[in-house]
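Dear colleague,

Thank you for sharing your sequence with our group. We've completed the structure prediction you requested, and as agreed, I am returning the results in plain text so they can be pasted directly into your records. Please verify that the sequence below matches your submission; if there's any discrepancy, let me know and we will rerun it promptly.
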Amino acid sequence: MVDWDDNTSRANLAAVGIGDMGNLAAYAFAPAILVTPLGAFSVLTGALASSYFLQERLGALDRLAIAICLMGTLIVVLHAPADAEIETAATIFHYAVQPTFLCYVAAVIAFSLLMVFKIAPVYGRNSPLVYLSVCSVVGSISVMSTKAFGIALKLTFSGENQFTNLSTYAFPLIMAGCIVIQMHYFNMALSLFPSSVVNPLYYGLFTAATLCASVALFNGLNASGVVTILSLMCGLLLIFAGVYLLSYSRSGDHRFQSLSDGDESETMSLA
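Please find the predicted structure tokens below.
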């Protein structure tokens, strides 16, 4: 619930709104395989902002993680393949009803139902992968819907009205439905497991699922060769590693472990 009398709450809501609009614009103008990994910047920005505003110290592991993320991001930006040319909303709908993407959507639905009704009741409290896998695969559909709606808006603003096509209205509905499901299970994962575990896992799974959805929608990576694909994969792995290291270093779990080990050693020496 937003407290409209609180300036901080209003500023937070405005920042979220601006971020979402920027996200929509990014998916409209750039490939999803490029935009999604750059979400790592939210992790980096959080670490740098906490260092500046909250006076939290950035340790050597933090700086190493940030450097790894930036290196991976640079590789992804340099080697990210372009999407296929899309001239109308009908073109996107044509891609969406191809057998490859329909099979992907069917697999997402079947997998999500299996995880929610069969796996989650048994293993949901033991592993964050249960709920995060549902978030990720459903989120990949929301990314494709966001991209489709963003392109429709871009074409409309350029003078080619896409709202005469019924598929344009379907995109935001699918996007909203997927986001609701996505956020529900993401919050469930956060309620059961620490954010230092949830965030890097979700980032990696979500990026991988988005890559699969993009490949299914556009029938391939549209890359120029094996070297480009391998470079892209290396860049993604570097970003994953950097996000994990940054989350781990800022969680404090390893510090607590070190302290407990130190206390245990001290107790043994005193004994």
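Summary note from our side: The chain has eleven helices and no strands.

Kind regards,
the structure core
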